[in-house]
User: Fold these one by one.
Assistant:
Number 1:
Amino acid sequence: LLSTPLNPLQHDYTQAMQRSGGMLLKLLNDALDLARIEAGRLELEPSPFDPRQLLSEVAQLEQGLAHAKGLRFVLEMSDDLPAQWLGDALRIKQVLLNLANNALKFTEHGEVILRARRSADGLLCSISDTGPGISEASQARLFQRFEQADSPQRRVGSGLGLAICRELVDMMGGSIELESQLGHGSTFHVHMPLAEPAVAMPVDEFASGRHYRLLLVEDDPIVATVICGLLEREGHKVKHVGNGLAALGELAHAPFDAALLDLDLPGVDGFQIARLIRQREHAGQHLPLLAVTARSGNGDEAKARESGMDGFLRKPVSGEQLITALARVVPGTVASEELPA
Ligand SMILES: Nc1ncnc2c1ncn2[C@@H]1O[C@H](COP(=O)(O)OP(=O)(O)OP(=O)(O)O)[C@@H](O)[C@H]1O
Ligand SMILES: [Mg+2]
């Protein structure tokens, strides 16, 4: 909606809806994360990642936020970071984003600096801001759930961010320390022990700027319209079908660069479709398959991969998430312009 013509009032309302939706989504995800941790069901999923890329992605997101607030966000990476580490990149990013978001949220003037360097056994990051600082009396308390200090920004959150950071870092065997004084800004130090892979392993390569011909298998017409819209806006061509049988029919008739599969479909479910697609492939053929699901269970991603899928996304998805996930699973492909419409 925001990328269509709107008058200024409509634009403001739509932005307010997007902000509120974003806040609800964050609250829900935070509450789910804590519930999972409490139930002992949150598991770290370590795989090789490039720390420089991860830190740059964090900085890129934060620079946008900082700019909107008239602040500066600086990333300082030391030269000794390894090319690869073994760790749960998603959760490491979640910790850094939470801390950097806080720093920007509570700071009105000045800058936020994210420093990253290697320690004897992993990654050492510090996030410093020129904000109001935190009194010694509040420091320990704020790492507990729902605890917030008095501040104008109190309503813009629920006090779960730091509690989640602490839980995640504990799971990694690391630590978070806070150094702050009222009126003199805050610095959060995070230490995360990480192993280095013995031999270099393939890290996700990001392909970008290509146009794909995609098959979307999704039974909910509203979700399908949204996903088609997000993909078409990026220049991709999308064929939408509502069930597995129709999907197999389409695949038999036209070439696709990738297929996006909902997992819960009437009749043949997404896992079965993936298996059927893989069974029909000849040697050397491999259609990239991306699961897009509303499920929140922990085991679904592993199950999707077992049934032959290459990527996994949870709904609701943003255009950016779709594009990144696709770029990860689609190797050098034929541009859609060269394919029959
Ligand atoms: N960089 C900071 N500068 C000043 N105060 C901070 C900073 N980071 C955290 N705080 C204080 O710690 C409290 C708890 O932070 P936490 O991230 O857990 O919650 P929140 O940001 O208020 O809400 P949520 O993260 O759930 O959206 C904040 O409400 C704020 O009072
Ligand atoms: Mg927070």
Number 2:
Amino acid sequence: MSPPSASGAVPNGAPASPESLPTSVAPRKYALATLLVHSGALEEDPLGASSPPIYQTATFRQPGATTGGAYDYTRSGNPTRNAVETQWAALEGAERAFLFTSGMAALATVTHLLSHGDHIVAGDDLYGGTSRLLARVCPAAGLEVTNVDTCDVEAVIAALRPGRTKLLMLESPTNPRLQICDIAALSRAAHDAGALVCVDNSILTPLYQRPLDLGADISMTSATKYPAGHSDLMAGALAVRDAGLAARLAFLQNAEGTGLAPHDAWLLGRGLKTMALRMERQASNAARLAAWLAARPEVRGLAYPGLRASAGHSVHVAQATGAGAILSFTTGSVELSRALCEATRLFKITVSFGGVASLILMPCFMSHASIPAEVRAARGLPDDLIRISAGIEDIDDLLADLEQAFDAATKAVADSKPALALK
Ligand SMILES: Cc1ncc(COP(=O)(O)O)c(C=O)c1O
């Protein structure tokens, strides 16, 4: 991986593993930034439409009563969705990709590959919704879940039960603390124990990290985030190389009716065209924000994979081509963190990440509130943690906004102390 440049910019277009385009633009090999724009199947319109058609239909007329056509029912397959799935598979270097109604629908489908009595090993710093799925839905289906610090390869090996553990569920970087785990080493260990490996790659997307290249079996992305890019669409993606696994996922997508709707697939395809440009700007902004925050006296425990001093940096640069655009930090005071979030003007207090607008939130009260307080405490997820998702705004405006917010928050907390003391 090329590390972030001095300016904080990440390499353009992540030309890690070019794929060939399945269209007339082939046979040259293209970088991912090009594959995002020239989406192959989406552009194969007989009338040459620059914007691909949306097959907004539930059913397809069949050639005969006993003969089937290419498509029959949109739950089972739709040309608009399938075109974006083909494009996504190319981005991941996958055999096949599947698009779902949300990232959680994609993750739930992965757990449906397992059977009653199977065991899952999962990280202990995961998105709150994933934690909820694993803690409250999977056990009801007879699945046992062990959460472990996935930065510690030995701890993961100790948690794996050969023959019984069927899934290792990872995030790297994790949400919200941006911890890094060694995907290749963990994949080898899981495979030795007979388990599949699923990596939630939502924070980086295949543009900056390709889990399948690192040995994972399933690459998962919440396409709600960077791929959609405008906070106006819910979608999730799974990508796999193994044909048998692909067949099982195709079966589940159809059987459970979780495939992405045609119009949403079209919106996602449109979002993908600008993803490289957006992520490059967002990552560059995040790197500048991280450098600025590192110099603030109020900031503690700053986590950003692009910081050379951050834990896991060397593992990250070996397995990813960019640092992404999410960072988190603590202030030592829930009150100060709250005041800071509320004093920002450009950074909107919003869950999720990856959209063009910069966002700020306190995970313990928002995105990760579904994890019980005692579990959060045991996992070392502090209440005063702030997570920022950098948008594409002008960096000087973002820095100025944070500066005025820090000043206002510090003053508000200082002013409130005497009042509290009087009570
Ligand atoms: C890391 C991560 N994975 C999965 C999800 C779930 O994705 P969705 O909200 O698209 O269901 C999220 C949502 O915030 C997330 O942050």
